[in-house]
Amino acid sequence: MSPTVRPPSFTHKHNHAACIADAIKAAEQCCAQNGTRFTSQRRRVLELIWQSHKPVTAYSLIKSLRKEKENTEPPTVYRALEFLQENNLVHRIESLNAFVGCEHPEKEHRSQFMICNQCDQAMELRNSRRIENAISTEASKLGFAISSSTVEITGICPSCQ
Amino acid sequence: MSPTVRPPSFTHKHNHAACIADAIKAAEQCCAQNGTRFTSQRRRVLELIWQSHKPVTAYSLIKSLRKEKENTEPPTVYRALEFLQENNLVHRIESLNAFVGCEHPEKEHRSQFMICNQCDQAMELRNSRRIENAISTEASKLGFAISSSTVEITGICPSCQ
DNA sequence: AGGGATATGTTATATATTAACATTTTACCA
DNA sequence: TGGTAAAATGTTAATATATAACATATCCCT
Predict the structure, then answer these.
(1) Rounded to 5 degrees, what angle do the CA atoms A129, A133, A138 make?
(2) Contact B123 A131 (CB under 8 A)
(3) Stretch B17-31: mean pLDDT
(4) Structural domains in chain B?
């Protein structure tokens, strides 16, 4: 079954239920493949993150979870987030101390985000070899061996202009 | 007087006293030009930041300042940092919640950093139009209007390899 | 069923940042 | 030159973010 073709996440009107469903299905498949356990807590956190394309903070997740289960403590959420990050299911947005669902979790990859100051949505670039290549070129010019990268662009998204 | 020519900051052996001196002199000139006040507190914080090329956290600055003046409270440091950032004298490293001296504060600019996992030093790229262009190109392809960008690459610097 | 590995619960604390209001210092000009 | 508004700093407290450490439960394998 081929993945759903869907407009970029900045397109404000889209069938977001499909985003969520696809993300959960992809997560199940990833975890099955990796032999990691997609427990109900982890699933619930991932679902909450996918409620929108806006990065959410750990503490807003804690608040949400407390509506369902009173004494949800920080480690619960941070552990789930750690798991989801390790399995490429969510990305951390460093400039916001927040987390957003990964839109193509199939394999580990460097990520680049465009984050709208108006609607707060974050869009992950797909297949942006251009930026990656530019970074790799600069690094090798300097003799720097890359292990990870953070690229977060803020501004106004097309739908908000 | 032309600026000192100096090897890139990742070169572990360099005359770091000159880095500090140049940074302070540049700060004086910037502030004079902008009509902003380079008070002794701000100068002291900038000097502390420039003790090395390693990004420092706000709290490590507070600790340092407390050795000189017992009751230094967080707002003291955060205000100085705010001023220094506004005047392009320091950059914030989002992925570390830490601050590092700007190596070319003459005018506002987008910054890109390479951060070594071994020696913890951060090097700011100079004139890296390549990365900026790649980002601009991607953004305009998507119709995204950039207002700021965060580019932080981690890995191993040449001196540490 | 036993037992080690993994996950979750629980309590406490560390780290990072800002709000709000009081006081002091500076710049400027009447 | 002294009055005053703006800017800077002091002070107290609160909020936001993240992790340590240890206890208990659950899962998976044989």
Answers:
(1) 160
(2) no
(3) 95
(4) 16-160 (1.10.10.10)
